[in-house]
Specification:
The complex is a heterodimer of chains A (about 140) and B (about 110).
Chain A: H1 3-34, H2 52-63, H3 86-98, H4 104-110, H5 115-126, H6 130-138
Chain B: H1 3-20, H2 25-31, H3 33-39, H4 58-70, H5 76-83, H6 87-99
The chains are: A mainly alpha (about 140), B mainly alpha (about 110).
Chain lengths: ~140, ~110
């Protein structure tokens, strides 16, 4: 992969984390001004409205690069998602969003995803891979 | 890329591969019977509730097992399964499942 591409992807991830942090700051003020019922801004970050392709682009910044590794707190290769069970991907994203799973980068990104986004992402990564092919052949 | 760089990169890649390939897939296969009950004998899981492991990155599987073992990652089933695994077991199991064909890096 070219350096410029890596940088662009890195920047994308950095932006999404910053966006999550910004979103986390915003809801209380909005809630106070409009006197929205308590609980609308629950859970910190607000969901980010954008086309699914933009949400998938966030995943690609790490999971789409062969051999990409985490930087902190431990260093290891990020998991391969192609061919993973869609239901498992959704469950994992929900655990990151709720904080049950504590990896900071995934927490920041998952907190902006709606249920619909998660379904779209799960469908994207669950489909068209060796694993699903193997599964289909077995039947 | 210059030939010298290519050579250096190849050596570095080989060194990394060796570092991650510390587990023994054969031994992992023998130890994997309890894992197979949910994750499948071929690493393709039997239910959507469980992730496929076939072809997953070896160090990611290791990290997940270590996190289950020490409680950083909380899951009632995996906590029990990982509790009695030694570091050797973790490396062998990760070597076994990562050697299977399945998951891939998808863009």
């Amino acid at each position: 992969m070219q350096r410029a591409h890596r940088f662009a992807l890195g920047a994308l991830v950095a932006c999404s984390i910053a966006a999550a942090a910004f979103a986390a700051e915003t809801p209380p003020q909005t809630a106070a001004k409009t006197q929205a019922p308590a609980g609308t801004a629950q859970g910190g970050a607000m969901e980010w409205k954008a086309p699914l392709q933009n949400k998938i682009a966030q995943c690609q910044g790490c999971h789409g690069i062969e051999g990409w590794r985490t930087a902190f707190p431990e260093v290891y290769h990020v998991p391969k998602l192609g061919g993973q069970k869609p239901e498992y991907i959704i469950a994992a994203l929900k655990e990151y969003k709720s904080g049950e799973r504590a990896f900071a980068t995934m927490r920041a990104i998952a907190s902006q995803l709606s249920d619909e986004d998660m379904e779209g992402i799960a469908k994207h990564y669950g489909a068209a891979s060796n694993a699903t092919t193997a599964e289909t052949e077995k039947k | 890329m210059k030939p010298a760089h290519t050579l250096a990169a190849a050596i570095a890649a080989a060194a990394c591969a060796t570092a991650f390939a510390s587990g023994n897939p054969e031994a992992g296969h023998k130890k994997s019977t309890p894992c197979q009950a949910c994750h499948g004998p071929n690493g393709i899981s039997v239910s959507p509730a469980f992730p496929n492991l076939a072809g997953q990155n070896v160090d990611y599987i290791q990290e997940a097992l270590r996190q289950y073992k020490d409680g950083r990652r909380a899951n009632p089933i995996m906590k029990g399964q990982a509790a009695n695994l030694s570091e050797r077991d973790i490396e062998d199991l990760a070597a076994y499942f990562s050697s299977q064909k399945g998951l891939e890096t998808k863009r």
